[in-house]
Amino acid sequence: MFDLMYNTIFFASYSNVYGLGNISLGSFDILLAYIVTIIVSIIVALLLRIPLLPSKPIRYSFDVSAIYPTPIIAIGLFSIFLVLNYTFMYNGLILAIVIGILSALFVKYLFDFVFPKPLDGDEGEDM
Q: How far, in Å, CA of 116 to CA of 38, rounded?
């Protein structure tokens, strides 16, 4: 229905006034860079000893894990760079690796400061 990758590439390359971006970026390159971003963010999160899954019950858990929100933050940051038409070198693979590492570091050390856990309704303490 909507060809999001094509529209992202088209509009980003159309507005490329200064010629800083890589206009020859194809759908396979974008898909590969997204997969690299996801894999690197999960691997670095596991190396930083972030648990793979949150504590039970998963539905009410506000714990961070390697599955969520680490790759989601990495995908979002990488999408911002793609829309801005900044892919750096090797069709965005180096940028994907750097963003995967930075998103895992963000989730490990800064996520609880930026997004604090909600207060418990009964006692007024953190959950």
A: 24
Q: Which of 44, 40, 24, 38 is nearest to 90 (CA)?
A: 24
Rounded alpha-carbon distances, angstroms, from residue 63 to 69, 70, 76, 98, 103: 10, 12, 20, 24, 16
- Global pTM value: 0.76
CB contact at 8 A, 86 and 41: no
Neighbours of 50 (CB within 10 A): 19
Residues 21 and 12: their CA atoms lie apart, in Å, by: 9
pLDDT tens for 7-66 read: 666 665 555 444 455 556 778 888 999 999 999 999 999 999 999 988 777 777 788 899
Alpha helices in 1-127, H assignment, sequence order: 4-14, 27-47, 70-83, 93-109, 111-114
Question: Alpha-carbon torsion 111, 58, 40, 93, what sign?
Answer: negative
